[in-house]
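Sample intake sheet
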Amino acid sequence: MTAARDIVFARHGAAHGFAWLKDSYAMFRRVRLAWILLLISYYMMLALVDFVPLVGGFAAPLLKPVFAVGFLAAAWTQERGGVPAIRQLFQGFRSNLPALSSLGIVFVVGMLVAVGSTAAIDGGKLFDLLANPAPQNLDQDAVAQRLSDTLSDTRVQLGMLVAALCAIPTLLALWWAPALVVFQDASAVAALAASLRAAIANWRPVIRYVISVFFFGGIVPTLAGTIIALVLPPPIGRALALGLMLPYELCFVATLHIADYVSYRDVFHAGETLAPMGGPEKT
């Protein structure tokens, strides 16, 4: 196993953050259908796991790092001249599954700690909303009002900020950890440590990347939906907004999955090129 101290990474300027997203979209655009089919298959698999009685709700988040390897394998294949395939979604089950499952446990624990931290600020209001979003004794209007009242509470908003700050170390440690486990034979602990160190060292491009993701994933769809709502009556506008935003979100989320690979390659294998594939992908 590769130790964290043996994992070398590059330090880049802020411009690389936007380049990660731009280069990832360029990869997506070349084989749109393959990536969209892979993404839809991924969500279908998570939905099936979630339906498993008793364990489904816990298993789905634990398996996310395992399925993440499928997207890494698909991007690796495309970079070598191949085409992403749905079968690659299961590559993680054949690539150090214990270490990848450990990453899933870290994700679940980290998110629970982050969400739980809000209770110290808002008295448990946000946690109650997440745990019981639609009480059976409330109608739809009352549920919407409860959501609005909770999210407009200053203490809840402060708690959400605290939760976001608490989640940052976990998210940064997990960002490149699956790739380090699979491509560099790192243990779960070494992968988490190396990913966190590399992300902190590259804080400038990381911040630029996060801002770019927020702009294209949050501001652009919101502005588009608002403009459509102002121009067209509600039934038509709602249908048009859904018809436009759903494909957009699919493309955007697929691009984000590719960006995990693109940013990993740029940070941990800067300047390296992969040999073209000699034949059809067998993994």
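Comment: DSSP finds twelve helices and no strands in the chain. Residues 4-268 form one domain.
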